[in-house]
Write a structure and sequence with these properties.
This protein is α+β, with helices and mostly antiparallel strands. It contains three helices and twelve strands; from the N terminus they run αααββββββββββββ.
């Protein structure tokens, strides 16, 4: 107690000043005279300048936090939109396949693509049906847009499909409406080439390409693509025809496998 008393005596000048300032400020802010209001306004202007940088820093922190929340929300909405677009496209594709199967005069087994490029020496994909569903080797594989390949390895519950984009794949085709025939093979991306077409054959850009029916495995009139260019081969009685396929082979999800040809020749 004595120590506290001595400390107050030694610091009495400072304490008196602090007390006087405190009383003065109290009187100033409790007084409502015109001069005091003017003094308050001046003081408020000064403190506003001092507080502005701190308020800016706080606002920047808040803006950064809000920006992060908005970016997160935007990402979530983008993912949801992509999922909805994917589901809509898959739904449209499945409806097309259902209509195709309903209108077709051949026996079809629907299948889902479960893997791509399983074999190293062949462009292929794997589907989730096999012998249990009546699949056998050399069954044609197609979508509502046309042929994509044939089965080459068949297990009990899965099958490997050799794609039309494999360099060793060949198929006999017919060019409509002229009726000329030739052998189709893949070139690159979604472009194929028909060889062994007679030079005097009537072929124009836009003609439809379908299976000829001469194959032991592929029924006739299954679509493949459309003619995009014709080139005469020098020193030959034949010409080559470039074809753009209907199918996008990079985005296959569901396919059909022909298990029986009802109207085969």
């Amino acid at each position: 107690m004595r120590y506290l008393y001595l400390t107050i005596l030694r610091q009495k000048d400072h304490l008196s000043l602090i007390l006087a300032v405190f009383i003065s400020i109290t009187l100033i802010f409790t007084n409502d005279s015109k001069d005091i209001r003017l003094l308050r306004a001046k003081a408020n202007d000064i403190f506003s300048v001092l507080y502005a940088p701190m308020a800016w820093i706080r606002s920047m922190g808040t803006l950064e936090e809000e920006a992060n929340l908005l970016r997160e929300k935007n990402l979530q909405l983008t993912l949801q939109m992509e999922s909805m677009l994917h589901l809509a496209e898959e739904n449209r594709h499945l409806r097309d396949m259902l209509n195709f199967k309903r209108d077709s005069r051949i026996s079809l087994q629907p299948a889902k693509v479960i893997h791509k490029g399983l074999t190293s020496n062949m462009v292929s994909l794997t589907v989730d049906v096999g012998k249990r569903e009546g699949i056998s080797e050399n069954n044609p594989v197609l979508t509502p847009k046309g042929i994509i390949g044939k089965t080459v390895i068949v297990g009990e519950t899965s099958s490997v499909v050799q794609m039309i984009s494999d360099h060793n794949f060949r198929i006999s085709v017919r060019i409509l409406p002229g009726g000329s025939t030739g052998i189709l093979r893949w070139l690159n991306e979604d472009i194929c080439e028909i060889r062994e077409v007679q030079k005097n054959a009537e072929v124009t850009v836009g003609d439809a390409i379908v299976t000829s029916g001469f194959s032991d495995y592929f029924p006739k009139d299954i679509p493949i693509g459309d003619v995009i260019s014709i080139r005469d081969e020098r020193a030959s009685f034949q010409k080559s025809v470039r074809v753009k396929m209907h199918n996008d082979l990079s985005s296959l999800l569901n396919v059909f496998i022909i298990t029986e040809v009802v109207d085969a020749q």
